[in-house]
Design goal:
Blueprint: H1 26-43, H2 47-53, H3 59-69
């Protein structure tokens, strides 16, 4: 008996963004980067290992992240 796969698609109604809501502060926007840097430090990762774990991030970008985490 052949294998038959039936796909059903549903229409998704897009909901516009609420632009009247307050924007995210720079401090809150940077929190995930700071948390990541601090976690990597706790794990004892080298800068090279952290860059690899983050998908091949450049050393310069990694240095900027590290500088931002120390502020």
């Amino acid at each position: 008996m052949p294998c038959i796969i039936c796909l059903q698609f549903r229409h998704v109604v897009a909901i516009p963004a609420n632009t009247a809501s307050p924007s995210i502060s720079d401090d809150k926007a940077g929190a995930p980067a700071r948390a990541t840097v601090n976690l990597f430090r706790a794990w004892g990762l080298t800068d090279g290992e952290a860059c690899t774990l983050l998908g091949g991030m450049s050393a310069r970008t990694s240095a900027r992240w590290n500088d931002g985490a120390q502020q």
